[in-house]
Amino acid sequence: xxxxxxxxxxxxxxxxxxxxxxxxxxxxxxxxxxxxxxxxxxxxxxxxxxxxxxxxxxxxxxxxxxxxxxxxxxxxxxxxxxxxxxxxxxxxxxxxxxxxxxxxxxxxxxxxxxxxxxxxxxxxxxxxxxxxxxxxxxxxxxxxxxxxxxxxxxxxxxxxxxxxxxxxxxxxxxxxxxxxxxxxxxxxxxxxxxxxxxxxxxxxxxxxxxxxxxxxxxxxxxxxxxxxxxxxxxxxxxxxxxxxxxxxxxxxxxxxxxxxxxxxxxxxxxxxxxxxxxxxxxxxxxxxxxxxxxxxxxxxxxxxxxxxxxxxxxxxxxxxxxxxxxxxxxxxxxxxxxxxxxxxxxxxxxxxxxxxxxxxxxxxxxxxxxxxxxxxxxxxxxxxxxxxxxxxxxxxxxxxxxxxxxxxxxxxxxxxxxxxxxxxxxxxxxxxxxxxxxxxxxxxxxxxxxxxxxxxxx
Length: 458
Prior knowledge:
This protein is an alpha/beta fold. 24% of the residues lie in helices and 24% in strands. The strands form five sheets. It has a nine-stranded mixed sheet, with helices on both faces. It has a four-stranded mixed sheet with strand order 13-14-16-15. Strands 2-1-3 form a three-stranded antiparallel sheet, with no helix packed on it. Residues 351-458 are annotated as: Lon-protease-like. Pfam families: AAA_25, ChlI, Zn_ribbon_LapB.
């Protein structure tokens, strides 16, 4: 008898839909790692009409009381979420190992439990005793906080049915697996199944849910891209290992603003919110120091003061070094080129080092003017006034462009104690603003240097 050929399984990329006849670790179309998995079987036939769970009603008759946000007890988290945690919402918190994700969520669980609401914390990475030790260290022990160490999806759902919590925390989604799905926990198929089951239960029982997600080496959320589409909110927890400062960013938010940030301080006995983080990114000098300039950047709707520093030294190599920390290196190179062209400053024989204070990451174009002033100040060894801030985007033609929310930036600088500001000319709101600051409006980079009197030669 002739042997019959068996159909080879097809594999598909969860991100872009690229298919292949054999499994590969990296998608050949979008070059994403770990997104190729066995394709679901194609079913033939048309879907028939089925009974509905609830009838459709006019949108004006839909009640919204059950969807109103509830405070989590942590002001910085509520700020990022747009007011609080919405019942039935599913949040995904991602961050590098050791950044403090579990510590933050344990604090959220404790605050929620102290308000008299039941909380279920499911740990798939640590034992219950290990979580209890950390809870005692951070003061997060409460009778309304229920703890379970599980790695099976069915057991997690059973705990939810038994405890009936108002808040569910799963740490982490990559460690939970389902016996009904092939693959190991953390794989594309398993993560998709676990997330779908937890989200379905959260929506059905109106349970606010927080999922912890791992990240890849480039900082993106590990697992299939569909995971970010399924959840309501995606939060990114960031921080430098050498610093205690931690930033919580909203990458996706169906209930509030996007790109809002919350600031936290990782201390020995837990994590503490920082309502006013401005002073963390500005260093105070007893005397004005050449090569420093303060700017005001916007993180979501929050203005933050940050200091830009520059250092220029005689280069000992034919190719001068251009090193930056906390700033976009390509944008730094562009500003140096503008200074060489329009301000006639020779930087071709100097090593230029630029950095920010406090580990701040500044990518907004409004930092350009402060960077240019700090660089010229370092090259001329002429200090910028300590009570001055510079805000503006610098173009390739040397023009200083307008920036958004200038009035809010100036008010924040005035609150901290700054009395002078260099801003783009023609900015909206400058005519009607009530401030004691001396505002210098400039239209190009040459005018900014003239106002600061840093163009005098050695």
